[in-house]
C-alpha cells in the first residue's frame, strides 16, 4: 500500500520546508515525472520515500515509521534472527563458505578466507527470507491478515518480489523484527534496518558444518529447479520458433 | 459488410503470404508459406466474382468449388501438423498424421467427391447456391456436400484445441500465449461451423462471420508467432552485442 500523497507532503514539509519538488528530485535522484505522477495519483511509493530520506540523511526506516501503515517500524530496531541473517547470504557466498570448511574440503582453509559477503538482497533473498521465518503457517496467516490470495503471494516470492506492505505483514505474522522483509526486498539496507555490522558473517560462522552443508544443498536444489524450468521453457519456445516461425 | 470482411481477410492473408516469400526462398519453414498461400487462394475462391471468373475457365461445372475444398483441407492439415509439433502436442500430432487422421481425411475426401459427382453442378456459383436451388434433392445433396467439406477442418480444430488452451494458459512468452489463444479461438470457430445445418434459414451472415473469424484468427495467430520469433531474435542479438562491449 503506497503512502498517501497528503501525508507524504506533510512529511516532506517537515524535513525540507523550503525545498521545491524540483530540488527534492535533484537531491534524491528521482525522476521529476515519476514523483509528479505519484503525487497526482495520490500514492507515493515507499522507494521514493526511502530515496528522499537518504538524500536528507534521515534513516529510511524511521521515515517510513512516520506513516500510519508503517507505525510498527518505530522504536529501537529489533535484532534479526540467525535464520534471517543467513537467508540474506547469497547462494554463491554460501557455497564458498562450504568450500572453506575443512570438514568438507580439507584444502579449504589453505585457500585463505573467502571474500567478504556480497550485500543483501540477492537473487532469491525474498523467498529464502520467508522460508527462514516460516513455521509452516506464516503464508496462511499473511493471506488471512491482508486478504492476498495465497497463489499471488507465492508468485511474488518466486519472482523475488514482495510489496513493503506484505513484507511488514509477513514479519508480523512470523513474530520477527519488522524491518527484515524490507532488507530482503532491498528497500532498505541491513545497516538502515539496524542489523549489526558483520552480523551475517557471524551467523554464517556460527553454523555447524552439517547445517551449512544441508542449507547449501537446499539452495542448490532450488536453484536447479529454477534452471530446469527455464531450460524447459526455452526449449519449448525454440520448438515453436522452429516449427512456426 | 460481408464484402468488406471477405476482401479485408483476403488482403491480410495475401500480405502475410507475400511477406513470407523471402524466408520461403531462403528455405525457412516453407510449409508455413504454403499455409498462407493456400489460405489466400481459398479466400479468393470463396468470393463470388473471382470464383465465377476462374470456374468459367475450368468449364463452368463448379469444379473450382471441389478444388476449394481440397485447398482448405491442405491448409488445415499443414496448420495442424505445424502447430501440434511446435507446441509439443505429440498426442495430437499422432492423431492427425497417424491412422485415425489419415482415415478421416480419406473418408471425408471420398464423401466430398462422391456427393459432388451425384449433383448436376453446371452453372458457376460460389457456395453452390444455384445448384442447391435446383430442386429438393439437390438442396439436400448440397447440404451434405457442405457438411463433409466442414468436417475435416472441424476434426483438425478439435484435435488442436486442447493444446492451444494449454499453451495459452502456460508459461510461454506472452505474444506466443496470445497467439495460442487466437489459434484456439479459430479452432472453436471452425468447430462451430459443424452446427451450420442447424442454423435457422436466412442466417448466412452468421455463417460468414464464423468462417471469417476462424480464418482471421488462424492467420493472425500464425503471423503473431512469426513476429514474436523475429522480435525475440532481435532482442537476443542486441543483448549479445552489449556483452561484447
Give a brief description.
The complex is a heterodimer of chains A (245) and B (245). Chain A is an all-alpha fold and 245 residues long.
Describe the structure.
The complex is a heterodimer of chains A (245) and B (245). Chain A has two domains: 3-73, Orthogonal Bundle (434 Repressor (Amino-terminal Domain)); 82-205, no CATH class. Helix content of chain A is 60%, strand content 2%. Chain A is built from 14 helices and two strands. In chain A, α9 crosses α11. The longest helix of chain A has 36 residues, at 209-244. The radius of gyration of chain A is 21 Å and the shape is globular. The mean pLDDT of chain A is 90. Chain B has 245 residues and is mostly helical. Chain B has one domain (2-235): Rhopdopsin 7-helix transmembrane proteins. Chain B is built from ten helices and no strands. Chain B has helices at 2-25, 30-45, 48-57, 63-86, 90-97, 99-118, 129-132, 136-169, 174-192, 204-244. In chain B, α2 packs antiparallel against α4, α8 (136-169) runs antiparallel to α9 and α9 runs antiparallel to α10 (204-244). The mean pLDDT of chain B is 88. Classes of the chains: A mainly alpha (245), B mainly alpha (245).
